[in-house]
Amino acid sequence: MKRRRLLLASCTALTLALAATACGGGPVTTASGGDKSLDGQTITVAGVWSGAEQKNFQKVLDAFSAKTGAKTQFVSTGDNVSTVVGSKIEGGNAPDVVMVPQVGVLQQFAEKDWLQPLSGTAEKSVDANFAGVWKEYGSVEGKLYGLYFKAAHKSTVWYSPDALDQAGVKPPATYEEMLKAGRAVSDSGLPAFAVAGEDGWTLTDWFENIYLSQAGPEKYDQLAAHTIPWTDPSVVTALTTLGKLFADKDLVAGGQKGALSTDFPGSVEKVFGPEPEAGLVYEGDFVAGVAKDQFGRKIGEDAAFFPFPAVDGGEAPVVSGGDAAVVLKDGKSQKAAMAFLEYLATPEAAAVWAEAGGFLSPNKQLDLAAYGDDTTRSTAESLIEAGDSVRFDMSDQAPAAFGGTKGTGEWKLLQDFLRDPSDPKATASRLEAAAAKAYKG
């Protein structure tokens, strides 16, 4: 997911030697108990996670070891998953499982014939335990390759309860009500929204939520696949809606200039830091981790969220991201690797990380009681209740040259639009030109 470009530290040793001291890897682990059906086998799992995320995922690996007797080794790829995994395959030292953070990367792996389709057992679990949309995002040309284990909810607006109380407003139900509440916050003496315009990926998330609600899921899918152009009237309408927010100096802390010099962590700090400079910040459920870990906020008490509200009479959007587990054909432990994915498809596996915190599962069979706090529980419930209306982050579905590269493509063009939102049609034309080039390539 895009947030990792800022929040996750890349490992310095990208050679990813698969020894116990490999970059991002802890010691090879096993545990007692279980049926020991995979005793003596070892699987290597590669993924972008580091820090607390890696530590919590290790608990899942340890639980799998306890159940099966298999040993596990995690190695951190940093953000360059495709490049690192490709080099490992070429060097004859491929990991067995990769946790893939983008739909586009999963599709790329499948097109290169790197992946093993999921077993019948795993597919049955996906059919039983997940909304159909997650199977669609894990499939390429009708074959299921990816199991979505960890998800993000990117349709959450975070706020300081004190700021809303001081302004005399409550969490809104519609986009217009949100702007009205923001103006009330501003009138009370605190700028409304901290916008992380220095990071273009946050601006794509703003656009995607507005577009999904305003244009609807069918149009969203068409634009994500580039089967309609970015000059489509629905895009111009969404940009016009977004531009009204960007142009309103009463709503954006520091105005356009201030937003363009604010990165994602800085936007959270402006709301939840020791000296608040804004009342609200839009981004995904991972805002809570920054507010809690960096600024000591109590989630649900002095840091809360409301769902991104419905726009112009549409449905409230639920934009998501996620990490899909895939099995590489060139891995050395095919049986154990597939067994691991079968395990990840169960609510039992999801509960391990849910209890540890910092995690959302798309597995609808997971008991919500497994989550450690009411706020995370509420976020997870919203994701599950959205069912097949969930849509994966659009820019993460696009070629990286358009949807995932700093200083170019959609990121840069939306930053330019934040700087001057006066001509949505011209911005749509520039977006289409960049998209056409990237999708062709």
TrEMBL record:
Signal peptide residues on this chain, from the entry's feature table: 1-22
Entry's family note: Belongs to the bacterial solute-binding protein 1 family.
Full protein name: Carbohydrate ABC transporter substrate-binding protein
Gene3D superfamilies with a match to the protein in the record: Periplasmic binding protein-like II
Transmembrane segments: none
Keywords, alphabetical: Signal, Transport
Origin superkingdom: Bacteria
